[in-house]
Amino acid sequence: GAVVSQHPSWVICKSGTSVKIECRSLDFQATTMFWYRQFPKQSLMLMATSNEGSKATYEQGVEKDKFLINHASLTLSTLTVTSAHPEDSSFYICSASRETGELFFGEGSRLTVL
Amino acid sequence: GENVEQHPSTLSVQEGDSAVIKCTYSDSASNYFPWYKQELGKGPQLIIDIRSNVGEKKDQRIAVTLNKTAKHFSLHITETQPEDSAVYFCAASMGNFNKFYFGSGTKLNVKP
User: Fold this and answer.
1) How far apart are CA A3 and CA A20, in angstroms?
2) Does A108 touch chain B (CB under 8 A)?
């Protein structure tokens, strides 16, 4: 299957700092990428849809100023958690949609805010 | 919007037995139905998918069936092995870079 790389796989930061997570599609161009948040033993919660060259579309209840998404190229999208707080600690997963319709996920990033 | 329901939430089987996970969807416009396997601490991995113009698809020990009339699709795993133990998610999409709607997940435990 196609490869989507996500980095870092885990990060620990202090409360009030910002953290950037990168998502790259390594072997295909991804016009659309999605960012999810996953709580323990729960399903994937869609945060936003990221389209190359345009503003992200956020799901209801997701603060766009808290979770900044940039999709600067067809192979890279970034999620920046600004002024992180302990309640932002979670598992964040990106995914990229191929033109044939399949959706491939990154390995996930475990964020712990102290 | 689309609503995907998945059952059961947990499933325990003996190694070598078959496992079946079922999902239903609500929007007849959905036309692409993937299944993902997620191991602890990792991102979901696409294991098989089916499109609305096909009723069944098989890949070695795994198969997926789709009933468009009833709006349900199922994942079948035969000859289960301990390494099949994971959380499985179904999803539905209308294609064309539209959103994917996920089921709530099934934790499969294959006992040796």
Assistant:
1) 20
2) yes
Tens of each residue's pLDDT in chain A, 114 residues:
679 999 999 999 999 999 999 999 999 988 899 999 999 889 999 999 998 888 899 999 999 999 999 988 889 999 999 999 999 999 999 999 888 889 999 999 999 999
8 Å CB contact of A34 and B104: no
Token digits for A81? Answer: 């958690």
Mean pLDDT lowest among A42-46, A53-57, B26-30, B90-94:
A53-57
B-side interface with A, Cβ within 8 Å? 32, 34, 36, 41-46, 49, 51, 89, 91, 93, 95-97, 99-100, 102-105
H-helix or E-strand containing B28? none
Among candidates A8, A5, A4, which has minimal Cα distance to A111?
Answer: A8
Whole-angstrom distance, CA of residue A68 vs CA of residue A83: 11
Q: 3-class DSSP state for residue A88?
A: helix
Which tokens in the block code for residue A77?
Answer: 């999208």
Tell me which residue has tokens 């059952």: B7
